Amino acid sequence: MAITRRGFLGGVLATAGTLLIGGRARAEADPPPPAAAAGGWQPAYLQLEQQGRLAERAEQARAMLQHCELCPRRCGVNRLRGETGVCRTADKAVVFSFQPHFGEEIPLVGRHGSGTIFFSNCSLRCVFCQNWPIAHEGRGSVVDDQRLAEIMLNVQRMGCPNINLVTPTHIMPNIVQATRIAADNGLRIPLCYNTGGYDSLAAIQLLDGIVDIYLPDLKFMDAAEAERYAGGAPDYPATARQAIAEMHRQVGDLITDERGVALRGLMLRHLVMPNRVAGTREFVDWVANTLSPATYVNIMSQYRVEHRAFEYPQIARAITANEFLEAMEWADQAGLTNLDQRSVMQRELFRQRVG
Ligand code: SF4
User: Fold this and answer.
1) Can you identify the CATH homologous superfamily of domain 5-9+43-354?
2) Residues of the chain whose pLDDT is less than 70?
3) pLDDT of the residue at 40
4) What digits encode the pLDDT tens for the residues 119-150?
5) Where are the domains of the chain?
6) Residues with a CB atom less than 6 Å from ligand 1
7) What Cα–Cα distance (Å) separates residue 45 from each residue in 55, 118, 176, 209?
8) In angstroms, what is the span from residue 192 Cα to ligand 1's centroid?
9) 44: closest CA among 200, 258, 263?
């Protein structure tokens, strides 16, 4: 049975506070071979480090915290002095949990699960946030970059085929520095940048040659809907499209190894929402016309009424089977050829339900 993100989070919340300790203990085990190792494939950050250029990137990234514009909120605060902006984060990451996750897209899971590291806080703060106890309430432990590097190495020792960085936007500089430390101590699996899409173009450009797999959301296509539901951010559709186009320019369409495990490329998520507020038809057309019809696209059906969504009548219910079926039909009409397997299976289930 597929494990949903919600179910996974429920389990995580039930054991909050023990997971960091659990992850540390498992570091003693012998590492299974990384999925990518057999073919001589190397993650992008390792090549940059071997060229002596990763340290410079880490310095550039940290300097961005002096006048923070890592995301389009452009708070301009000096996070190195402890000031905080919309994301409520100073100069260190807050980690809620890390562990293998089997509910992610199949190419990310492999045999041992995607190596998720859940970061606390977020700069977007959607009213329907499906991760709100972590993203809005900031639960977790403050970790320095050395400790974050240890967590990455622990995830690799668990046999995970990637480091899945969940909500990384506001702590990108910490991720780059930790990646450098971890690479020097044996990290060899690709970074998966699992972002809500509200990233500044400058931040994504700095990650060129560091991140192999981008896993962004594109939540809304319309400024008014984004302003209403995505933390008062009418610029979300435009800035997210710009950032995602840059991600695609860097890594292209998804490439997997001989076992179907992701090595490099863009994997795009879109959550279907009630009453067409997510702009799914515009989304699939934009992907096909601006990126590539071969883009890996996960059209997701699991919208739940979470956080403050019940206060907004248009999104205060789950989606219907017909809303998901029309979304998948639009994807077909747009010519998208690489739809997520679980979304295709979900379409079959809904088809049977509506007859
Ligand atoms: S990352 Fe945080 S402090 Fe920086 S611009 Fe975004 S919300 Fe503001």
Assistant:
1) Aldolase class I (3.20.20.70)
2) 1-39
3) 80
4) 999 999 999 998 888 988 889 999 999 999 99
5) 5-9+43-354
6) 68-71, 73-75, 77, 85-87, 123, 170
7) 11, 21, 9, 6
8) 21
9) 263
